[in-house]
Amino acid sequence: MDEQDRVAAFVAEHGLETDLAYRALDLESEVGEVAKEVATSTDYGRNPEAAAVATDEIGDALFALLALAEAADVDADAALAESLAKYEARIASSGEVGSGE
């Protein structure tokens, strides 16, 4: 069972089904908590070497992302493979990861 299936099973087992819009907002909230940890651990950028994020916060963000993928009927593994191929193509053509837009 992959991670997306594990999240889907957990959501179903605990009655946590909700709509796509809520899942997107939950992901935004969880990623915001990761950013907050980085901001506070670095004294709001004054000490970037001290950047830290608790593993449970990364886990919360991953859970929210995989729940969003499930709600959107997107295979997370396939989406990641597509994204990596896109980045590899960009690097091959321009030497850069960014799209330049």
Task: Give a short synopsis of this structure.
This protein is 68% helix and 0% strand.
What does this 3D model show about the protein?
The chain has 101 residues and is mostly helical. Helices cover 68% and strands 0% of the residues. The radius of gyration is 17 Å and the shape is flat. It starts with a helix and ends in a 7-residue tail after the last helix.
Distance between the termini: 38 Å
- What ranges have pLDDT less than 50 throughout 5 or more consecutive residues? none
- Topology order in helix (H) and strand (E) letters: HHHH
**Number of strand segments:** 0
User: How is the quaternary structure best described?
Assistant: single chain
Structural class: mainly alpha
Instruction: Tell me the β content.
Output: under 5%
Question: In angstroms, what is the radius of gyration?
Answer: 17 Å
Would you tell me the overall average pLDDT?
Answer: 95
Number of helices: 4
Helix content: 55-70%
Which geometry do the CA atoms define?
Answer: flat
Q: Main β-sheet, in a few words? A: none
